[in-house]
Amino acid sequence: MIRGKDMAISLLAVGSAAVAGYVLRSERSGTCTSRSKADLGARLVGPTDVPDDATIVDASARRLGEIPGARRALDRAVRNGARDEWEHITLESDGAWSVVDRIRQSLPYYDAETGAYNGVYVRYNDRIVVLDAIGWAHLEEPIQ
Prior knowledge:
By secondary structure, the chain is of the alpha+beta class. It has helices at about 1-30, 60-65, 70-80, 100-105; strands at about 35-45, 55-60, 85-95, 120-125, 125-140. It is built from 4 helices and 5 strands, in the order H-E-E-H-H-E-H-E-E.
């Protein structure tokens, strides 16, 4: 009979610890906000590199200004003469990954099949810049 009581007490202790751990974890995950990260990239292209069926947006377009980091990425690409590599802006905040959707849905996004860059072609003064979300991830807060 003592063995049964010892076993019952052990099971009760283990069960209580499991329930307490579950409650603490669910409270923590309810208060922690997950974050996302997106890299918005831009690079210069020559006029002959613009696909015939691509729509070119003016850099002053309102919809372009509503995308976080878009103007900074364009400015950086033009300032640095970025022809060989993407100049990028990293956004780290709640919902930063939604920039990908905004670029593809609110602007004339060109989806290249071969030879051209994917992205939004933008006229920036006398230059053409391609703007695209070049990387994104959904990050979770580490368990502390």
